[in-house]
Amino acid sequence: GENVEQHPSTLSVQEGDSAVIKCTYSDSASNYFPWYKQELGKGPQLIIDIRSNVGEKKDQRIAVTLNKTAKHFSLHITETQPEDSAVYFCAATLNNAGNMLTFGGGTRLMVKP
Amino acid sequence: EAGVVQSPRYKIIEKKQPVAFWCNPISGHNTLYWYRQNLGQGPELLIRYENEEAVDDSQLPKDRFSAERLKGVDSTLKIQPAELGDSAVYLCASRDGQRASMNTEAFFGQGTRLTVV
């Protein structure tokens, strides 16, 4: 089955700096890679996703890159704000397997004002 | 539009007691998932439903866990008897799986935090 590794487990940045979270996956057949943000006491919420036919996707301050050959994908947050503080999870899945997500272990991002 | 609704939000029970969690998915979403999230970890899939059919329950510990989605809408997840190691957040998610040509988003509920003492 799929295995997703996520690094770092904690990340502390100063407000306005950039944050980068990296994930690797094991199953080369995986073709959908969402990123979720989880705030305390809430369920995960999708913030951006990327499909295997795309190398990069950007949405305002958030971008995701995918390297299929290396089986790496990364989340980039620019101009971080205190409200970006949360736990971020990467995930991978094969679409025609019912989108059953395999999650990474999470990264706790702390943005210091 | 209401999101995925779960209840209760919190549950504390003694070990060996039964417990049940309830999930109401987003209207029209035929795919429903139950995930378990241990403290400081990512969610792990327990079971996936397509309408009323459990199409993947390979990760569900069947000796004590059971789930149902009788009418293809609401779902319940039950543990009987509960063990100390079952303490976790149980998350329900739903997705419009009928749009098979797209990787459509899975929406998560707020979860039920179970503490077994």
Account of the protein in words:
The complex is a heterodimer of chains A (113) and B (117). In chain A, 0% of the residues lie in helices and 54% in strands. Chain A has strands spanning 4-7, 10-14, 19-25, 32-38, 45-51, 56-59, 62-67, 72-77, 86-92, 102-103, 107-112. In chain A, strands 2, 4, 5, 9, 10 and 11 form a six-stranded mixed sheet that branches. Chain A has a five-stranded antiparallel sheet with strand order 1-3-8-7-6, with no helix packed on it. The model of chain A has no long low-confidence stretch (mean pLDDT 94). By secondary structure, chain B is an all-beta fold. Chain B is 0% helix and 47% strand. Chain B has no helices and eleven strands. Chain B has strands at residues 5-7, 10-13, 19-24, 31-37, 44-50, 53-56, 65-68, 75-79, 88-95, 107-108, 112-116. In chain B, the strands form two sheets. In chain B, strands 2, 4, 5, 6, 9, 10 and 11 form a seven-stranded mixed sheet that branches. A four-stranded antiparallel sheet of chain B has the order 1-3-8-7, with no helix packed on it. Chain A binds chain B through residues 4, 6, 31-32, 34, 36, 41-46, 49, 51, 89, 91, 93, 95-96, 98-106, and chain B through 4, 31, 33, 40-45, 48, 50, 55-56, 91, 93, 95, 97, 100, 103-111.
Keywords:
heterodimer, A: 113 residues, mainly beta, six-stranded mixed β-sheet, five-stranded antiparallel β-sheet, 11 strands, 54% strand, globular, B: 117 residues, seven-stranded mixed β-sheet, four-stranded antiparallel β-sheet, 47% strand
Using the CA coordinates, give the radius of gyration of chain B: 14 Å
- What portion of residues of chain A belong to β-strands? over 45%
How many β-strand runs of chain B? 11
Largest sheet of chain A: 6 strands, mixed
Largest interface in this structure: A-B, 28 and 27 residues
Quaternary:
heterodimer
Distance between the termini of chain B: 37 Å
